[in-house]
Every structure is written in structure tokens, then in C-alpha cells.
Amino acid sequence: MPTLVQLYSARNVQSQTEALDRIAAVGYDGVEGCWLNFEDPAAFRKELDLRSLAMPQAHVPLEMLENAFDRVVDLTRHLDIYTVIVPGLPEDGRPSSTDGWRNLGERLDIVEGKLRALGLRFAWHNHDFELISLPDGRTPIDILLEGAPGMDWEVDVGWILRAGQDPVLWLTSYAGRIVAVHLKDIQPDILEEGWADLGFGESNWSDVFRTLRALPRLAAHVAEHDAPLDFSRFVSRWKIAHDRLSALRPGRSFEGFTHVALKVHDLDAQLSFYERVMGFREMFRLPNDDGSVFLVYLRINDRQYLELFPGAIGEHAPTPEERGYQHMCLEVADVDATVEALRARGARMCLWRDDLSGICEVEGTAITTGRDGNRQSWIKDPEGNRIELMELNLAGMQYGAMGARLSSSAR
């Protein structure tokens, strides 16, 4: 699914070209335009082309669509916009009655017809006020979509959450009308006006992404944050969370290998080899209570890693007859469900001994939170090889290190 950044999120960045540099560096497919990009559309198109970014859709005020339609058409031609989206209404322009919303729907229907005649698509972007029931029990969004049957909907999941409603219900109710989604989270504090990066707020996104995969006309996932204190952090963390949430599939127990761990005798020599020769990059270290190194975490790619544990006995690697690795780790989407399934098949879960000399079977799920902030459980194979099951936490050290890397590369 193409990923776009709504450029309203970048309004406080020093320059729009700086924002485009960061968006391209992180790996987005394009942007969703807004009024910031309308002054010189031809010049802005050149900036997009320099970075191989598309602008398939843009937010255009209703007033402009009704009073300067030819200018809107000119914008779509210069910027290669296919979907024109009304971003919302100012507070003093919002209807207060069912009849008022019905009249607005008729106006939107006229605009939709004019755009359709030119081969363009028209959509509405919601806030929270369109979702609140009117005295007759209907909601403004229901009335608008009924009054303009050719108009599509760009669902802003963040505003649905802000309204205290279930986004899955709205996504399923209008599955055939939804062509784009704004994906943003909410958080209780007000440091960023109550908004949060995708996956870093208080919402459960697994059901939302499962529903998104079933939408027949969905054409774009849009990153948006109404008040980010750090734009680079926002676009980096959103992309990491989005790619992870998009990859997870219900009913699939294992997502793949995340890391291999080696017990090493000479940590400095091993680090020199894996960093200098192999090209792996150190992401972080975890200390023991006395300050010595517990492990060093090296990046192979954004989903696979190598752990080096110092303190091995002996100077040489084990012979082929000896067990030669510390443990293997399998990423799981839901550690609770995976452990339940394994126990149903006869597996006994394990915990580490206090002296870290090995793992032993215990009763129950043995689910814990590791030093890196991820939930985990362990099992042993028949020969005693240790297998870790890890549910990666978006706020854990691994994704934090990835976000810092992407943020740094985008500056």
C-alpha cells in the first residue's frame, strides 16, 4: 500500500524542501498536498520529481472548489493530483441541523460531478464533529455521503479515536467508499495537543490494520500528526510502526527470525570483525548491574540482528559436535496467543535461572518483559536448544534505535 505524508504535518518545518528531503530519506512513496503547496505548483512539482515523490491527492478547501474551480483544475494538472479532498470545515461554517448538513451534501454533489467529468476523484476528510449524532439520530457523515453518492471518504482514524468511537465500525460500514486513511494515534497528555505517532499512543491497531486490508478501494495510507514537536521523529516512527503493523497477519504464529546470539570470548575482536568486515552496525548495549557489558546489539537489517554476549569460556568456537549458539529468537505478533497454541500442542514454557546458567521448564505461560522492553517467553527443543519467542514493543529499544537511525538519516 502506498504511504504518503500529509504536508500539513510539516507546516512548522523550516522549509518544505527540507520536509521533502526527510520524507524521501525515510522511504515514503509520496505526499498528500495542502494549501502550503499551492503558491507555485509547477515549481513544487519539480521538487517532488527531484526526490521521486508523488502527490496523488491533496486537501483543497471547499471555498476554493466552489469559487475558484479553474484554479483547482490547474493545480491537479501541474501536481498530477488524482483525488481532491475537502479537509473539513471551519467551526463557523459547520451546519447546526440535519437540513444544513443535507444542503451541504447537495453542494458537495455538484462539486463531485464537475470533478468526475474531468476524470478526477472527490473525497471528504473527517474530523470528530461529523461523527456525533444529531437530534434525529443521524450523523453528519452519513448525511454527506448520502447526499453526494459519488463522493468518497478519506477516513481519519485519529479523529474517530478522538471522538471515542470504534474506527473498525466506520471502516466496515463504508468499506466501498473509503479511498484513503489518515493513521494517527492519541495520547492523554497535551504535549502535542493530545496526538501521538502511529503505534505510540493508547490505541490498539491490530484490528484496524486487519480491517484496512479488506477495503476494496483503499489507495493510500497517510501519515499525519497535527502538532509534532519533531517532524523527523514523527515520519521515522510512523514508517517503522506502519511497516510492522502492515506485515503482521492474524493466525500466523511466527513472523521470522529476529536475531542470533553468540557467546564470545574476545568482545573487542568480535565487534571489530562484525562491524568492520561484515558491515553490521552497533545499535545499543545493555549493561550488567556492575556496569560491565551484558550484550551488544548489532544490526544486520531492520528486522534481523546479531547479539554478542561477552564472557565465553575458552578462546575458540565449539567443535561441530558441541552446541554452538546461545539461542534463537522467533518474532511473534501476539505472544499470549502463540504461547497458548504451543501449550495446547504439549509444549512447556521456560524461565531463565537466576544465575543465567540456562532455562528450566515451569508451569504456566512464563511470559515476561525483557530488559529491552519487549514481551517474551521461552521453550526448549528436545536436545535443550533454547528458543525465545519475542513480541516486539514499538516503544522498546530495538524500534527506538531504528527510529533514531531513520531520523538521523533524514536530517
From TrEMBL:
PROSITE patterns: VOC (PS51819)
VOC domain segment(s): 256-392
GO BP of this protein: L-methylmalonyl-CoA metabolic process
Keyword list, A-Z: Metal-binding
Alphabetized Pfam families for the sequence: AP_endonuc_2 (PF01261), Glyoxalase (PF00903)
Classification via PANTHER family: METHYLMALONYL-COA EPIMERASE, METHYLMALONYL-COA EPIMERASE, MITOCHONDRIAL
Protein name: TIM barrel protein
Naturally occurring in which organism (per UniProt): Ensifer canadensis
